[in-house]
Amino acid sequence: MIKTFVSALTGLLTTIVLLLFGVKYAFVWGLLAFLANFVPYLGSSVAVLFPVAMSLVQFGFAWPSAVIAVVLTGIQQVLGNFLEPRLLGRELGISPLLEVLTLAFGGLCRGSPEWCYPCR
Q: Is the pTM of this model over 0.90?
C-alpha cells in the first residue's frame, strides 16, 4: 500500500507540474509516472524521459523544458530516496538508514559476486 501511495503521489505531482507548464497530455504522463514507479531502476527514468521529450517537442530547447526536467527529476529523487524509505521503515519497524544500507549492500553484491560470500 505504501508503494501505491508513493506512486500515486508521484503521478499526481508530475501531472500538476506538467499542467502548470502547459505540456500536452499531462494526465497521460502522470499515469505513466504512476505505473513506471513500480518498475525498479528504470521506472523513474522513463517517468521523466517521456514528459521531458514531449516538452522539448512542444517548447524546443527553451527554459521550460530544462525546468521541467529538473523538477520531475527532483520529485522522483525526493519521493523515491527520502519519503518512501521513511514510510516503509516506519510501517515495517526498521530504520530507514538500515533499509538504505541493505539495498546498497544488495546492489554491491549483485555487481561483484566474486567477493560477496552470501551471493556465491
A: no
Total domain count for the chain?
A: 1
CA nearest to 55, candidates 31, 80, 20: 20
- What confidence score (pLDDT) does residue 33 get? 93
DSSP string, 36-82: HTTSTTTHHHHHHHHHHHHHHHHH-SSHHHHHHHHHHHHHHHHIIII
Could you give the count of Cα atoms lying within 13 Å of 64 in the half-sphere of its Cβ? 16
Q: How far apart are CA 5 and CA 84, in angstroms?
A: 9
pLDDT of residue 73: 93
Q: Is residue 106 part of a domain?
A: no
The dihedral sign for the CA sequence 86, 91, 93, 94? negative
What nine digits make up the cell of 53?
521529450
The whole domain housing 16 covers 2-95
Question: Is residue 54 situated within a structural domain?
Answer: yes
In a domain, 81, yes or no: yes
Look at residue 108 and tell me if it is in a domain: no
